[in-house]
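Readers of this paper often ask what the protein records in our data store actually look like. Such a record has a labelled line for the sequence and another for the backbone structure tokens. The tokens are whole numbers drawn from a learned vocabulary of local backbone shapes. We quote a single record here, exactly as it is kept in our systems:
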Amino acid sequence: MRIGVLAVQGSFSLHSRVLSSLGIEPVEIRRSSDMTDISGIILPGGESTAFQIIMDSDNLGDYLRRELRTGLPAWGTCAGAIMLGRSTAGNPFPGWDLIDIEVVRNGYGRQVDSFVAPLRITGFESDFNGVFIRAPIFLNPGRGVDVLAEFDGEPVMARQDNLLVTSFHPELTSDTRVHRYFLQEFCAQSNLSNIKSA
């Protein structure tokens, strides 16, 4: 199985490292021609505005949006989730509006407000330590959105159809369960046996 990791900016190398540890081949995506024969893609944390500028200089952004609309599994973490979500009236940004959830950039504060919190994630046997760094807040999930985890009563992990979003950074921990969840629930299909056990 080959999983793409958007590699134009941000924490892509950490996601690639986790994928490799699970026996999955990471494919760093910098242009549309890199998106050959992948079973899904991770949009990492970073700076969502920088993502947009870099991808708009090529046709990668338009190509990726088309692929996601036609069913390519994608997981957005932090800035990646911002790209997949929809903006609010008071916090506009050029999001793709692919998942029916509002996103407020830096909703949990600036870099100095970073924190770690235990999260109860649906289907996980024990809490997951969520690392929040300039994290977005998710608001008003639509009917088709399945909220998987909350913090202070607001969603921080959710899914809809082929899309998964987290406002926290699983790649900054040694716990691979969220990566395994994405691989197994969204990308694996008949390839479950290819994913190494934790």
